[in-house]
Amino acid sequence: MSSRPIYTVSQLTGEIKTLLEKNFENIWVEGEISNFRHPTSGHLYFTLKDESCQLRAVMFRMQNRLLKFDPEDGLQIVCYGRLTVYDPRGEYQIVVDYMEPKGLGALQLAFEQLKEKLAREGLFDSARKRPLPTLPQKIGIVTSPTGAAIRDILQIIDRRFANVHILLYPVRVQGTGAAQEIAQAIEELGRWPALEVMIVGRGGGSLEDLWAFNEEEVARAIHRSPVPVISAVGHEIDFTIADFVADLRAPTPSAAAELVVRNKVELVQNLENQVWRLNQVVRTTLESWQERLESLIHRLTDPRKRIADQRLRLDDFSFRLATSIQQGLGRRSERLGLKRESLFLLHPGKRVADFSRRLSQAYHRLTISGRVALRLNRQRVEVIAGRLRTLSPLSVLERGYSIVRRLPSQEIIREASRLKPHDRVNVKVHRGEFTARVEKVAGGEEDPQPSLTLGSKGV
Amino acid sequence: MAEQKFEDAFQKLESIVKKLEDGNLSLEESLKAFEEGVRLSRFCSKKLDEAEKKVEVLLKDSDGRLLPKPFSLEEEGD
User: Fold this and answer.
1) Distances in Å between the alpha carbon of A84 and those of A17, A36, A54?
2) What is the pLDDT of residues A15-62, one digit of tens each?
3) Do A281 and B56 touch (CB under 8 A)?
4) A149 to A155, A199, A206: CA distances (angstroms)
5) Which of A133, A264, A274 sits opposite B17 (nearest CB)?
6) Phi and psi (nearest 5°) for A105?
7) CA A161 to each of CA A258, A261, A269, A324, A390: distance values in angstroms, whole numbers, following the listed order
8) Model-level pTM greater than 0.90?
9) What value of ipTM does the predicted structure carry?
10) Cβ of B45 under 8 Å from any chain A Cβ?
11) pLDDT tens for residues B3-32?
12) Mind telling me how many Å the CA of B62 is from chain A's nearest CA?
């Protein structure tokens, strides 16, 4: 009889099981995944190997559902778990409770994997990115109702362009369930009537804090949004999947606010610039026409027989110019901040166009009838030219002139010699009128030239 | 939409100003163009002032519908 102990297979297996399971209860193992299987049961089966050896592994569904990345063949991982022995077959394996990729953090790997997947589907294509509306009247924001992001956004919008309607959809921006809240917020806010643009984001934090914005459901919600989405997550250096899918990425929530309303400030400036240029160019156009008119007047010479006829035309033209300018003045308001003189020059009256056309015709007729030696009634033409030059949209009265009428005949007085001391006169000035008595009269004897009148209005 | 009209109007205003500055229009055309330019600039100006200022937060009521309520920043530590 020998004294060697003789095990049965079962006994030996039992001992091996106890030995292994007790001594390898909490271990970390690193290796490469191979023979990876993921059956419908939800459990993961694979082999961990290195250059020379292999170890069977399993990660049950309860544990693997928390994985943030997809294990696959070839991946280097680090596992935490325990050894178990499967008696009937005498096999040992490691039951993995936790797994992470070696080298890259789990989160970072998940980030890379999702980024590739969505890029392949075209969610990041620049062609599908929409331009921001230039004049948004309704802006949506998905972020935490407390926190730096909403505060910064509101402050900046208020400072730059206050008259805008902001709709905030409050969400949790980190923690379990945050991604789902954010995705739902984007979905529902996107359906809000007349919403034109949306900012989605949060303030700075760690990769874990920002993680909700790397989740697939948030990315897809942004992709499906009917209005353009600006992403504003974390600090300048943080890039999340949401940033890649959004129509525009802002480095911070403050930057997002500036992008959304900055357009309005630029627009106001552009508009004012255009208006200024508009007024400038019309002013110079009318000034050049005015110059041409004056030079024509100066060169005007008349056969004695036709003097009265031409003079009448000039009177008529200048009267109509004065009237139309006067009328135009009433219409054009100060809205664009022009001075009144500029306003006069800029009046778009049709009469000015008529006037210039007929003047050209008159001049044309004069030259056709030949160069005739003409005696120029210098004084009269100068009077007209002078009057034309000094015509302003304000009545001549405003320049300090007044209309004097003798009472009670109401005869308009142009020559002082028409008056005698003690005559009573009515004097009309720019504002108001008064009655006066003549004390002394000087000058104004009979004028050898007939006087000019410009219609029945004015002096 | 108000959006498109503003853009169109502003672009038209720009092209009118350019045309006038090129100086090839007759006086009559210039004045017509100026009139149109003034009209467009007033329209654009009006559009810029149109939006009303409002800051609201959307909250779900018991039926799950979103209702806007006035929103103001509360003191928070961050």
Assistant:
1) 7, 19, 15
2) 999 999 999 988 899 999 999 999 999 999 999 999 999 999 999 998
3) no
4) 10, 10, 15
5) A274
6) -65, 160
7) 10, 7, 13, 41, 45
8) no
9) 0.74
10) yes
11) 567 778 888 999 999 998 887 888 788 888
12) 16
